[in-house]
Amino acid sequence: MNIKIHNVFNFMSGQFRILGENKAAIKFMLRNFNVCWKKRCRSPALHLSRNEWMAGLPHRLAGFLRQALVSPKCRHKRDEGGSAIERRAAAGPWARLNLMLVWVFLLACAGGTGAGAETPGWTAKSLVKGKGNRVEVRNKDLMVDFGEPVAWTICNIRYQDCEIVGEHGYQGTVVNVRLKEAGAKKAGWIGTGHGLEQIKSFAALVNQSNQVLAAGAEYRGGTVAIRKESNIGPFDLVSETLFSATGDHFVERHQYKVLEDLGERFNHLYAFMHCHNNKLTHWLALLGEGKEEQGEAVKDDNANSLKKDIKAIVFYGPEIQKGVVYVYPEVYEGCSKPSKNFIWDRPKDNKLYFCPEIKRRGYKAGDSFEYAVAVIPFSAGSEDWKTKGRELAGKTYF
Asked: What is the separation of C-alpha 226 from the centre of its chain, rounded to a whole number of angstroms?
């Protein structure tokens, strides 16, 4: 339930007059729990996120309940009249039963019900896989890993152990330039697995604390941020991937600083690229102002589709019953060549590109700009995936 715990307890504190003599004891427990919560909020030395603190909530509640119902020497400091009350002596059997039921209710309020109430929690782990070092971020449903050989960009996105995005190509940002760069794997491209991206720094922040990414290191927390600083030819890039406290999505944010005259060699850049599992065949684009467009990528014929400015797009695979939603903070203006937001229907994947309009904006050396996208995987049946996608696209992520 989306209710702050101390607000719930403050509200319930005023509802206990029917419990007669046990009122002061209950108020004592409410105040005690509030003090515990506020200490957690004020104590940076604890290094506990809200999710970590909530994970120990059932134990704390059980302790407070045991203290009230079992120990005859637990006393409330002062009641409203200033006298001391021995809680167990003051409480008859029915009052104690009522008190127990109250705590069951409060525990339900604090923890919610069903799988969605579980503490999301992220684990960030450094490991060696395939051709080089990786950092993997995961929780019970979602896994995203980043690879050093591809300039610390995303390699895979898996949801409920099903591939959403895979290593069928490169993700992240690339820049296209007119002059062939020495050493480039492919003429005209700088960045990700194409080469020439110069990494200045790479870090994993768990609960906003920078962690040492030694081989085999593993960290847990309520939030994780993967941060990279690099150069991609005409631009310096700060790339952040932010894993939310809710545990159900992450945000990619790319900040660019112009280093040179963009009229000299710059053609265009792809701000975001995602190589989807080829089983994600159906898509629904939300263009803004209630307009939509939909289609399928099933021919594997290397054709491009969509080619429009969008607010969000939903991909779905009927066979795997999984999908993913991409949501921008606004309808970004795309470059008409090559094709704004477009889907490349390749034999090995269905790749989504976003090419923003850069040249006509008149950026000069020293100017900065940024783009962001929220990535939300989901499960749904073939009959309701569009409804689910629209619902997720309508939420706030920025």
From this structure: 11
Q: Are strands 198-206 and 224-232 parallel, antiparallel or unpaired?
A: antiparallel
Class of residue 366 by CB neighbours under 10 A (exposed 0-12, middle 13-18, buried 19+): exposed
Cα–Cα distance for residue pair 270/249, rounded to 1 Å: 22
C-alpha distances out from residue 182 to 65, 91, 267, 268, Å:
70, 83, 17, 19
pLDDT score of 98: 55
How many angstroms separate the CA atoms of 330 and 339, rounded?
A: 18
Q: Which residues contact 363 (CB under 8 A, 6 or more apart)?
A: 258, 262, 369
Q: Using CB atoms within 10 A of its CB, is residue 216 exposed (0-12), middle (13-18) or buried (19+)? A: exposed
User: Which segments in the chain show pLDDT lower than 50?
Assistant: 1-23, 25, 35-53, 66, 68-91, 108-119
Separation CA 152–CA 155 (nearest Å): 9
CA distances from residue 251 to 165, 266, 287, 328 in whole angstroms, order as listed: 15, 27, 20, 10
The side-by-side arrangement of strands in the sheet containing 312-317 is: 209-211, 198-206, 224-232, 235-243, 250-258, 368-379, 322-327, 312-317, 282-288, 291-296
Name the residue with tokens 């081989």. 215
Q: Domains of the chain, with CATH numbers?
A: 5-116 (no CATH), 126-393 (2.70.98)
Spatial neighbors of 352 by CB under 8 A, at least 6 apart, are 272, 273, 274, 276, 313, 315, 326, 341, 342, 343, 344
